[in-house]
Amino acid sequence: MTGVAGATVAVAATAATTAAGTTTTAAATAATTAAGTTTTTAATAAAAATAATNATNATNLHFGGVVFPGSNCEQDVVYALRFLGHEVSYVWHQDTDLAAYDAVVLPGGFSYGDYLRCGAVARFSPVMDAVSAYAHAGRPVIGICNGFQILTEAHLLPGALLRNFGLKFICESVPLRVEQSVCKWLDLAQGTVLRVPINHNEGNYFCDEATHERLEKNGQIVVRYCNPDGTRDAGGSAPNGAFDDIAGICNERGNVFGLMPHPERVCDGLAGPHATDGVPFFKVIASYVEEVRGA
Amino acid sequence: MSNPNESTPNGSPSSSPAASSPVPSNPVPSNSTAGNSPSINSAAIPAPVADVVETLDAAAAPEIAVQLGLNLEEYENVVATQGRVPTLTELYIYSLMWSEHCSYKHSKKQLRRFSSEGEHVLQGPGENAGVISVGDGWAVAFKMESHNHPSAIEPFEGAATGVGGIIRDIFTMGARPIASLDSLRFGTLDKPRQRYLFDGAVAGIGAYGNCLGVPTIGGEVYFEEAYEGNCLINAMAIGLMREENLTRAVGSGPGNLVVLIGSSTGRDGIGGASVLASQEFDEAAENKRPAVQVGDPFEEKLLIEVCLELLKRGLFVALGDLGAAGLTSSASEMASRGGVGIDIDVRKVPQREDAMQAFEIMVSESQERMLAVVRPDDLSEVKEACERWGVAWAAIGTITDTGRFVVRDSELPAGSDIVADMPAEMLAESAPEYDPFMKRPAYLDEAQGFDLTTLKHPHGVEELNAAFLSVLASPNIASKAWIWRQYDHQVMNNTVVLPGSDAAVLRIGDTGRGEMSTRGIAASTDCNGRYCYLDPYTGAQIALAESARNLACTGAEPAAITDCLNFGNPEKPEVFWTFSEAVRGLADACKFYDIPVISGNVSFYNESFGHAIYPTPVVGIVGLVEDISCVATAAFKQAGDTIILVGETDDELGGSEYLKVVHGLVAGCPPALDLELEGDIQRVVRTAVRQRLVASAHDCSEGGIAVALAESCIAGGIGATVALDDNLPSASSLFSETQSRILVSVTDANVTAFLTLLAEAEVPYSVIGEVGGALLEIEDKLTVSLKDIAHLYNTTLEHQVLTH
Questions:
Q1: Catalytic residue list contains B799
Q2: Could you give the C-alpha distances from A254 to A218, A280, B501, in angstroms and in order?
Q3: Does position B646 have pLDDT exceeding 80, yes or no?
Q4: Over the stretch A203-237, which tens digit does the pLDDT of each residue have?
């Protein structure tokens, strides 16, 4: 599990070939209309076009994907990032050197089984000291699901993830509203609605009033659960009972981002009408990396 | 456990004449079920390794044997095989290996009807799971197994360890587990205990699969009074591998080491196979709780990773999992398959409890353990990988050339440390084989003969609306989203068609290595126990037909099936008749369609207080999708699409959900099944899906066409206007469960091409209406608002579980 990505080029090349002759506009339109048809070809083509664009135009990054014992979404996120044209290496939980990576991903899953509070054991893994130092240096870190839980346990993000309201595991695609934030990972107009799957038993975000005020004031709330039209119910729109419908937050500098939904599951256009809604979550971080490098 | 529907001990189909001729339905009764146990040919038994010190007292031993679940005749066979009175450890081992659960002693003969031959088959029954080739060098391993009895006592752990066990069977073959499905049966949800069992089992399945990161992509559930005392938890797992990585649990190479990997061994699950799985339930069931194992999915996740890594590096000569009967069955089967002996020291087994006796260590069913055969030179590399993953390991013995299964206890003085010394092959493969007496059940005449015309059926739109709503709100019909929302059904990034449609579809590929393909597999589990109760032969055939029809609706071609045959006490002639008929029906249908049975499981003794469950032969099917960009779902897609019923409706209300819900009856004959017509209809719809001619395709079965239409409307969020000109009474027209029907919608541009295809295939069909609007309207019969029925359909199950 410590090999370096060898498939990056091949995947991107395949994507480019598949997309040959498809203009971006047509592909985007196809992705929209594919919502209602029996086939997913159009959506796949659109995703391939996205990947091709990323592979040729965007800066390709080298991601480090941390693997804790019990992580189970690391392959998914590695696949998605490679599909989008990036290079990814697995980082074993006992590794301590992250210098080689442009950005670090803490994937979803059940680190150490999560029999204790989620992420409570993982935060003591040797790699987490390195992640802390990396984050404090202003370099980009994203924690997805279990990764978000680990980031809060490690105090790299404020608050905590409680058991879902209703006490049941929830796996479903949910609408997310993009908020005005300082997050370096996402750059979409406030109010944009994306559909991304959630998949957790402990995704009920909670923080105290003072922290919440700070989050609001600093623009640290990145995405909120919402209704399909982007509105929010007075009684809350979060399927898991999250405080203030919070689905994802970042730190004050915006370089550390944690979210419960799984954008890596909707990057390659495989299934359903919103099968590429996860792409924006991994798109703009390249420009920030350039910025950090420049500084 | 690794005793699927095997035909002969080594898994190849028997060629004896008896295998192909149907067993007479009413054979000459023998006065005992133990009609023809094998005679012991002592010349064939390898000689013992050494004298054992402490055998049981010859006078007391038979009584102990009976307590452990053997009958006296079987005990005599043990003595004959051993050539002496057995030791306590030996007796424990025989009682487990010759239990129904491990030996299939009542079912073996019937199971020889199944054929495991087929163009895709790489591994048939006889291994931990069957394996088929799915093209481009990829192979798929799959199997279904029951965990009924543990779950009826402790639903969360029972169901969780059921999932864990079947997933171990899959990665034992060298395949990465990529999906699981679950077929569940409970009593009705108005009973608090049934809600507890249902809620607990679903939570257990979710907790285990979610933690492992294996998506739970489908399954089925029914709620019937017949399952009240004995719920069914059948778990199916599917794994993916490159063909060259196929591994078998065949021990070989005398001198090689036997290495136990994974959890330490405790007293949990002692006697699970014999005490729980091979007896009926009674008042003492609660006392059996200690025989239920406790699962640790985190340990299993690590085991998957370390075992797949070591298999790929070629460091395992053989690999097997420890399931029912623990170390005993795993080690003896491995030795037996390889024609070698095994010599184990129980004191080298890592133990989590103090003062465990040799027999306890040998029969413990502690979960998350694997047994590997490793060349001595490779041990250091195995050790390194295990330590890197934080998985415990221990070399507990060696492969020998004696053909004997030898168990030592090194705490005993040297020279007298052997506590068991048995012929491995006799132990694993020479369990008694019975040919139980069978008798057609008395209830059948009355149930089948019920005159449905004497019923007062609803008439007019108002009455029919009410009947429809009560059928739609039956938990057997209503949406199962409450269940699969609790399962991670997307992890691994390969789920193309999510749960809730006819069959789930997965992309074939290894996301971790970026090796993706455009091919896919589809999977479904099916069985209507009520049909099987009313006619086990036809009911079992319908189980296969419906599973294959579900695949056809997605565009997939059936490749092979696994099965889980759940029945009552086989020693009761009427129960055994239903078993025999169901196997005959399923085997006939499989042969007709040329679909091999590559693995499976039999679960008997599903009875409580003398009442057997419905005969429930569950079929788990896997099919091939040539192009995942070209699959169909059940949801109507857009206004204006034409709705076509492929097939035609007959007046067949027997065994229907309508009859149960509206009239409180389980009676009549189940729908007839014409295998040829069924095949034609599946073929034409599959072809149409692959040619992208259909916008949606949905199996029309339980609840009739009214429910099928409602489901396509609800899934698509759009209504439909339909007229049914079938000249049937209204209730039959709406609710008849005639087989071989598929509800299809087609966009304008494709109508002509699709109708031409149907005409060429010479299958019956009718154009029945159009997609659109906010109502589901069936002319002169039904008018309901889409919003109302969607709410009812989507909330019924949760409402019944949580707010009763």
A1: no
A2: 10, 16, 41
A3: yes
A4: 999 999 999 999 999 999 999 999 999 999 999 99
Statement to judge: residues B341 and B458 lie in one domain: no
Nearest chain A residue to B207 by CA: give it.
A169
Q: Tell me which residue range forms the domain holding B88.
A: 1-8+47-103+249-430
**For residue range B131-168, what is the model confidence (pLDDT) as tens digits?**
999 988 999 999 999 999 989 999 999 999 999 999 99
Buried residues in B206-221 as b, exposed as e (16+ CB within 10 A): bbbbbbbbbbbbbbbb
Please indicate whether, in this complex, the C-beta atoms of A1 and B632 are within 8 angstroms of each other.
Answer: no
Please count the structural domains in chain B.
Answer: 2
Q: Is B495 on the interface with A (CB under 8 A)?
A: yes
Residues B411 and B462 grouped into a single domain: no
CA–CA separation, B167 vs A30, rounded Å? Answer: 39
Any domain includes B621: no
Name the catalytic one among B106, B120, B147, B457: B147
Do B289 and B403 have their domain in common? Answer: yes
- For residue A168, what is the nearest residue in chain B, using CA coordinates? B486
Cβ neighbors of A269 (< 8 A, separation 6 or more) are A31, A40, A43, A44, A45, A46, A47, A48, A275, A276
**C-alpha–C-alpha distance, residues B181 and A241, integer Å:** 29
Residues of B in contact with A199 (CB under 8 A): 210, 488, 490-491
User: Among A258, A271, A103, which Cα is nearest to A195's?
Assistant: A271
Q: Which residue has the tokens 């679903």?
A: B202
Among A144, A149, A270, the strongest candidate for a mutation testing the B interface, having the largest count of B CBs within 10 A, is A270
Cα atoms found within 13 Å of the Cα of residue B455, Cβ hemisphere only: 20
User: Is A264 a residue of the active site?
Assistant: yes
Distance CA B323, CA B164 (A): 10
Q: How far apart are CA B484 and CA B1, in angstroms?
A: 27
Domain termination site, one of B430, B452, B471: B430
Q: Which of these is catalytic: A74, A87, A179, A264?
A: A264
Closest chain B residue to A87 measured between Cα atoms?
A: B514
Residue B644: closest CA among B520, B762, B758, B512: B758
Please state which architecture CATH assigns to domain A8-294. Answer: 3-Layer(aba) Sandwich (3.40)
Q: Are strands A246-250 and A256-259 parallel, antiparallel or unpaired?
A: antiparallel
- The total of other beta-carbon atoms located within 10 Å of residue A287's CB is 13
Residues 6+ apart with CB under 8 A from B121: B130, B131, B132, B133, B560, B596, B598
Best B490, B518, B625, B637 member to test A by mutation, with max A CBs in 10 Å, is B490
Residues 199-228, chain B, touching A (beta carbon < 8 A): 203, 206-207, 210-213
Helix segments in A117-183, DSSP class H: 126-136, 146-153
Kindly report, residue by residue over B53-105, the tens digit of the pLDDT.
678 888 999 999 998 889 999 999 999 999 999 999 999 999 989 988 888 99
Express each pLDDT in B227-251 by its tens digit. Answer: 999 999 999 999 999 999 998 889 8
Residue with tokens 């898991």: A240
Contacts of B28 (CB under 8 A, 6+ apart): none
Which residue bears the tokens 């090689």? B256
Residues B1 and B71 in one domain: yes
One-letter amino acid identity for B577? Answer: W
Q: Do B574 and B440 touch, CB atoms closer than 8 A? A: yes
Q: Test A72 with B301 for CB contact under 8 angstroms.
A: yes
Whether B64 contacts chain A with CB within 8 A: no
Closest of B768, B771, B800 to residue B786, by C-alpha:
B771
Q: Is this complex scored with an ipTM above 0.95? A: no
